[in-house]
Write a structure and sequence with these properties.
Blueprint lengths: L6 E10 L2 H4 L12 E10 L2 H9 L9 E11 L6 E10 L1 H15 L10 E6 L3 H10 L4 E6 L1 E10 L7 E2 L3 E4 L1
Antiparallel strand pairs: 1-2, 1-7, 3-4, 3-6, 4-5, 7-8, 7-9
InterPro entries: Cyclic_Pdiesterase
Protein name: 2'-5' RNA ligase
Pfam family, one: 2_5_RNA_ligase2
Length: 174
């Protein structure tokens, strides 16, 4: 009996936080600095058209996006529940949502969940660990400007959730 394994290609569009803020937050994965996902890992087939659109400046927003991070949230009561603790984007979410909508529409991306701008603090941990991280960041508040977005491509065996190995990203000005 032969079992076929498939690999999928994914795109991630993220806005990195300035270092002076990112350095204060945990890295949920060792290889990923704190950021706001504009397009969460989404399966794609045509990476060339995505690169070309970003290279052409199709998604430039006309300048930095002012944001405020304030408040802790989680997706544990969503449908389906997802064990994620995050910082909420209290200001600037509207511009991030417009950017996400434009990218989704341009490439026909389908989201598993509605867009909700946030900074992930930890995920897929036992409830006690999620609660500990939430409590440790309960009073965290920061105001900054996002100046860039990074487009990264990765590959994963066809698993759920995907276990993606990311390649180097390309940075574009907002």
């Amino acid at each position: 009996m032969t079992i076929l394994s498939t690999t999928r290609t994914y795109v991630l569009v993220s806005a990195p936080l300035p270092n002076h803020i990112a350095d204060l937050l945990p890295n949920p994965r060792e290889d990923v600095r704190p950021h706001i996902s504009i397009v969460s890992p989404a399966p794609v087939t045509d990476t060339d058209s995505i690169r070309e659109a970003f290279d052409a400046g199709e998604f430039s927003t006309g300048g930095p996006i002012a944001i405020e991070l304030d408040g802790i949230g989680d997706f544990r009561t969503d449908t389906p529940p997802t064990p994620v603790i995050f910082l909420q984007v209290a200001a600037g979410a509207d511009r991030l949502a417009a950017l996400a909508t434009a990218i989704d529409a341009r490439f026909g991306l389908r989201r598993r969940f509605p867009f909700h701008p946030h900074v992930t603090l930890t995920y897929y941990k036992p409830d006690e660990e999620l609660d500990r991280v939430a409590e440790a960041h309960k009073g965290f508040r920061a105001v900054c400007e996002l100046t860039a977005m990074t487009v990264s491509f990765g590959a994963s065996p066809d698993t759920m959730p995907p276990v993606i190995t990311w390649g180097p990203g390309t940075t574009y000005a907002l």
